[in-house]
Design a protein that fits this description.
Helices cover 64% and strands 0% of the residues. The chain is mostly helical. The relative contact order is 0.05.
């Protein structure tokens, strides 16, 4: 049985140089990311979120909305 590190290495070996660079950037972002503030366990399904009541300030909601829209615009631009 292989370890997670072994699995990562085996998968990375299949990537092109450009894909390896992208994967490295992603891993660096994960390492440098701020810890989650959520009380929910990682991997909570979207359907489960309907049953959760969130308390969020207007400013937090607007910030989240802006981040979603910016990411959406970036995704659309990347597809062009």
């Amino acid at each position: 049985m292989s370890t997670t590190l072994d699995q990562l290495q085996a998968l990375a070996e299949q990537l092109s140089l450009e894909e390896k660079k992208r994967a490295l950037e992603f891993i660096q972002e994960l390492v440098n990311a701020e810890p989650s503030q959520s009380d929910l366990p990682p991997g909570t399904s979207g359907s489960s979120l309907r049953n959760v009541r969130f308390s969020m300030s207007y400013e937090e909601a607007e910030s989240m909305k802006r981040a979603i829209m910016e990411d959406r615009e970036r995704s659309i631009h990347d597809e062009e």
